[in-house]
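Hello,

Our lab assistant flagged a job as stuck in the queue for most of the afternoon. It eventually completed. Since we weren't sure the result was trustworthy after the delay, we are filing this so someone can double-check. Below is the sequence as submitted and the structure that was eventually returned. Let us know if re-running is recommended.
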Amino acid sequence: MNGNTHKGKVLTETLSGYRGRQNVITYRSSWEYKAFGMMSKMHNMKAINGWASEETVFKYVSPLDDKEHKYYMDLTVFKPNGDVVFIEIKPYQQTQPPNRTRNKRDDVYAREVNTFRVNTAKWKAVEEWCKKHSSPHKKFEFVKWTERELKI
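-- returned structure --
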């Protein structure tokens, strides 16, 4: 995840199309910051009606403790046709089951497995919500953006 650790805050008045409640939003990685810029550009080109960061919350049950937790979507995008897209920004490696290698320590592998299990539970909860609430008139979609989609 090199290059993905930059954190900071952005004034929402500098971002075109932002529909969130806060005046200042936090980006938790350089990738999220890049996505904010992409959303502003898409809004300026009328490709989207608006967007928000960490405003949409889904509930999921963690497989680690069997308790309900909250999952804040990285981005919620409002399309001109009324559809809504929920976007999670993650390194590609974290979207795939971890590989067990000879050189990988047991604790590192266990942490990767648990992270993937929790992420999978989150994604499943959002996908099920989207399926349940989509209709012929309004579609809800969940997608993952990695360094591939962000062209990093």
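-- support follow-up --
The delay was a queue issue, not a problem with the job. The result is valid. The two ends are 11 Å apart (CA to CA). Residues 106-133 form the longest helix (28 residues).
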